[in-house]
Amino acid sequence: MLLTPTRLALGSVLIGLLVLALKFVAYQLTGSVALYSDALESIINVVASIAALIALRISARPADANHPYGHTKAEYFSAVLEGTLILLAAFAILREAVLGFMHPRAFDANSTGLLISGGASVLNGVWATLLLRFGQRWRSAALTADGRHLITDVVTSVGVLVGVGLAALTGWRVLDPLLAAVVAVNVLWSGWQLVRESVGGLMDAAPAPEVVAQIRDIIARTAVGALEAHDVRARHAGHATFIEFHLVVPGDMRVAEAHGICDRLEETLQAQIEGAVVTIHVEPEGQAKHTGVLVL
């Protein structure tokens, strides 16, 4: 069966529900506040996965009269929502940690509960690796955000398991809510980073500097026959990279020849820049600015 972003997102929902059930079983067996906080975050994982699935379905729609540039930015809305939900989860976990400090309660370091929680973390780790690999390959903001969130969940879960074990060995009950607070801070930071990056996508942030340099290099090497390219701009929108620039050609060049250069540029950019959508404005040499990309 062909693997697609939508199918991978659907898999995230199912994996999230399974992990959520396992972590709540682990909490029920131990009564640990830290494990409860870990289970709370898994609820956010499920909601975020559902949001990613919806966003991917929307982003796959072709351009239409109301959305001539397509629907690719829907993935960023999903990532912003996921980041916001992560922040809310962090505050919920902090609340449980504070209550744990104020009213320490005994818990049972049940080996079965700890093993179940550890198994859920392993499952999360494997799935997160898959999401990140394909999210980066497909340039999917929604899948990448989901994968990064799960990696954060795995790190905090491992910390919780180690801490609960130490609390049981030492008898220091305060370690349990203390670890819940550490989990909350880590989750808070992860959510903030995710929201910041996703808002950048919604604000038409430029691609990474190395991608911009690659675009300029392709123009310089491929636009043989032209004089220069100026006002080169690029932006990411989900899996698409919109590229536009002005191409200056000799004043006496025929339209067909200038069009041939543009076709060559578009084909090369689309072949080397994944998801490239190219717009070129041709100008006569009198419009040269001598500040853009000089054609080699």
Automatic annotation (TrEMBL):
Domain Cation efflux protein transmembrane: 12-203
Molecular-function annotations in GO: cadmium ion transmembrane transporter activity; ferrous iron transmembrane transporter activity; zinc efflux antiporter activity
Localization, UniProt: Membrane
Family per record: Belongs to the cation diffusion facilitator (CDF) transporter (TC 2.A.4) family.
Domain Cation efflux protein cytoplasmic, first and last residues per copy: 207-285
Identification of the protein by name: Cation diffusion facilitator family transporter
Keywords tagged on the record: Membrane, Transmembrane, Transmembrane helix, Transport
Topology class, membrane: Multi-pass membrane protein
Record field: transmembrane: 33-56, 76-94, 114-134, 154-172
Species lineage: Bacteria, Thermotogati, Deinococcota, Deinococci, Deinococcales
CC terms in the record's Gene Ontology section: plasma membrane
Classification via Gene3D superfamilies: Cation efflux protein transmembrane domain, Cation efflux protein, cytoplasmic domain
Gene Ontology BP annotations: intracellular zinc ion homeostasis
